[in-house]
């Protein structure tokens, strides 16, 4: 119930005040509606971008002392999709993937295709967080790996940490150790300067697809494969 005092403090008439308010013209109202619609669309777009950012995989910080440079999202997802296609090409033979010194790819692969069997061979023990999938790997000891991995992998992806001849030679030994007898699908990510050496040691050729890193590198980076991906990955580069 209202008291007399409350009644005296109220405005005389809300209706009277409304009558005194200026009214917008039809043209002004239409402009206001258009503005509010644009604002709503902009907010929805920004929200969509935020959702996309949340979908990106977050890794530990790069350690440049270990020559670590993470792939950008497009590169990691493109490589993960290529691996999925290879796995699907022969469903009668279970695939086993070795990701050598490429944790970005491993993480995206398991995020997008959790049922694919994959191991991360990596020197940085921070990646022990991935449990049994993690295998400690020092390229200076190219075959000091669990016996269960010997000739067990039909897909091998390798990103040697250094652009030296010695490093690539030792990584090639690791590939031989891991590869199934019938031969693996091999994807090598390294600098353009390794092109001739990569062909000699691993019989791989450059693809047109150009991998990129989240933090841009000064040297030109390439993807090489030992199989012709046809229309995928831009195919082998034609001279």
Automatic annotation (TrEMBL):
EC number: 2.1.1.-
Enzyme class: transferase
One term of GO molecular function: protein-lysine N-methyltransferase activity
Record keywords: Cytoplasm, Methyltransferase, Transferase
Polar residues biased stretches: 1-11
GO cellular component, one term: cytoplasm
Region ranges (Disordered): 1-23
Major localisation: cytoplasm
Matches recorded under InterPro entries: Efm5/EEF1AKMT1, Mlase_EEF1AKMT1/ZCCHC4
Single Gene Ontology BP annotation: methylation
Superkingdom, taxonomy of origin: Eukaryota
Places the protein is found: Cytoplasm
Function description: S-adenosyl-L-methionine-dependent protein-lysine N-methyltransferase that methylates elongation factor 1-alpha.
PANTHER family per record: EEF1A LYSINE METHYLTRANSFERASE 1
Homology family: Belongs to the class I-like SAM-binding methyltransferase superfamily. EFM5 family.
Identification of the protein by name: Protein-lysine N-methyltransferase ACMD2_03153
Originating organism: Ananas comosus
Gene assigned in the entry: LOC109705718
């Amino acid at each position: 119930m209202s008291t007399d005092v409350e009644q005296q403090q109220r405005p005389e008439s809300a209706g009277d005040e409304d009558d005194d308010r200026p009214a917008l013209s039809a043209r002004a109202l239409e402009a206001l509606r258009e503005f509010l619609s644009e604002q709503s669309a902009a907010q929805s777009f920004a929200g969509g971008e935020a959702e996309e950012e949340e979908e990106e995989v977050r890794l530990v910080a790069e350690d440049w002392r270990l020559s670590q440079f993470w792939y950008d999202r497009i590169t990691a997802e493109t490589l993960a999709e290529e691996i999925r296609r290879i796995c699907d090409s022969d469903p009668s033979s279970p695939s086993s993937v070795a990701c050598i010194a490429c944790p970005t790819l491993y993480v995206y692969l398991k995020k997008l295709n959790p049922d694919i069997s994959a191991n991360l061979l990596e020197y940085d023990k921070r990646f022990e967080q991935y449990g049994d999938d993690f295998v400690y790997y020092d390229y200076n000891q190219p075959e000091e790996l669990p016996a269960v991995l010997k000739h067990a992998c039909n897909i091998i992806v390798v990103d040697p940490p250094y652009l030296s001849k010695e490093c690539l030679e030792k990584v090639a030994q690791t590939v031989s150790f891991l590869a199934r007898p019938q031969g693996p699908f091999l994807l090598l990510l390294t600098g353009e300067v390794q092109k001739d050496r990569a062909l000699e040691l691993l019989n791989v050729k450059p693809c047109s697809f150009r991998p990129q890193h989240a933090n841009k590198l000064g040297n030109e980076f390439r993807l090489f494969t030992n199989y012709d991906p046809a229309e995928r990955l831009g195919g082998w580069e034609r001279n």
